[in-house]
Amino acid sequence: MNTSLELPVLPEYQLTPLPFLLPPIPDKLLTLLLPIAAYWSFSMLFHWIDEKDYFSQYRLHTPAEVLKRNHVSRWEVVRDVVIQQIIQTAVGWLLGMTEPDDFFGKEEYDVAVWARRIRMGQRAIPGLLSLAGINANELAKKIAGSYPTLAAALSGGVYPILVKDSSLHNGPQVSMPTFATWEILAANAMYWYIVPIAQFAVAIFIVDTWQYFLHRAMHMNKWLYTTFHSRHHRLYVPYAFGALYNHWFEGFLLDTLGASIAFKAAGFTTRQGMWFFTCSTIKTVDDHCGYALPWDPLQHLTSNNAGYHDIHHQSWGIKTNFSQPFFTFWDRFLGTVWTGGDVSARYARAKIMAQRKVDTESPTTVVSPTNITNTSSADSATANHAPYASELPNAIDLHALPASYQDPTAPMGKAAQQAAGSREQVLEDPRDGGKQILLEEAAEEKEARSMIRKSNRRRTASSLTQSDSLRGLRDRVTMHGRTGGILGMESSR
User: Fold this and answer.
1) Percentage of the chain exceeding pLDDT 70
2) Which letter does DSSP use for residue 10 in this model?
3) Mean pLDDT, the chain, integer
4) Would the pLDDT of 468 be above 80?
5) CA of 127: how far to CAs of 6, 122, 156, 461, in Å?
6) What is the C-alpha separation between 306 and 310, in angstroms, rounded?
7) Residue 277 three-state SS
8) How many CB atoms lie within 10 A of CB 140?
């Protein structure tokens, strides 16, 4: 018998219970506790930064806005977050009861299984090469002297020299095939790296998909919005520990159930789930932190960051930017990303107001986060209006209000449709939104413009060199834009 055509024997193994990662806490209990600990520790870090007024130049909103524009007390936020986390823990406990206990000792066996799959996959190589008119066996013979391993792979995984004498179950010695070095290396890469990365990619895709479509439904259906989701939008100025402030049913449906489905579908182990749930929690907190920090890696890994999600919390963008918590592909694929261009100027103006008592003579020291949405205001004119084509004519309540409620104005085109639909939704929910929200934003915009005009006049009158004056003008144009409307900023560079 030609043993080179047979598959190598899989090694024996003995399972041993996996020691606790953090004794004496069982891993399944730790999986429930870590996301809660991460939520409060990470959000309290941002709260401490808020209280100490550190990095104010990177704030998306001023402390005054947090107090003035939000329609829920911090105590109510904490209460509802704790309720959601209690439900989350109970569901997680039930989920853990369906999972087997974790063991180790089978790793070498599992790697060998992958090596076998790689060996079996090589049997398809001759047929695939024949489709291109290449005789695999002839090619293998030509290179066998210089590249014996490659020749064996091309001939369908036939390795006549890779055999060893061994006995099965204390029987007589027989020649058995073994794995090539490259097969073991590839199998280790599959088992330890490629498969786990694929599992996390599947879980991320499921969570993003689940949350996008449910979140979008919560906004497109008036009953769902006013009954459940409007509670979260009482926070027009998000802050870190308000990330999970939701109606309890929405929190279960959107966050807990979606993450549980992703856990099961991805085939996670307990420790993989521990990482996934904890990292998802940290990402959610970071998306609501209220800061565009240039050194925060979470805000640069994807375009779905604090600046992107903050637009969704504004009265003019509430029906856009539904994607959360990881990527924005559904928003971009289905046309629900904000198309009004970079809104950095809006936040820069608010920050200038906060700094006027400290730095009234030099507003350009404020650092503006750039390109928050990765779009251009020109997109508004050229983008397909779907799914917002009917928003502007259907904004009945909005049309009945004076033009002063429309400040800040959005660029013409799709962005105007998005802003109209968003503001109409605010007006349709008088309990948690209503006209007062639009009045507050319009007043804030008017005050910001007034402060900028005064600051610019003072700076023009100061004794600066011509070079400094031109540089200051360039910075102000870059920060605030050339046009009167601040939702779309046209940069001079």
Assistant:
1) 80
2) P
3) 82
4) no
5) 19, 10, 9, 81
6) 6
7) helix
8) 22
295: amino acid identity, one letter: W
Cβ atoms 361, 369 nearer than 8 A = no
pLDDT confidence bin for 56, thresholds 50/70/90: confident
Average pLDDT (212-219) is 96
What tens digit of pLDDT does each residue of 5-20 get?
A: 478 889 989 999 999 9
The pLDDT assigned to 259 comes to: 96
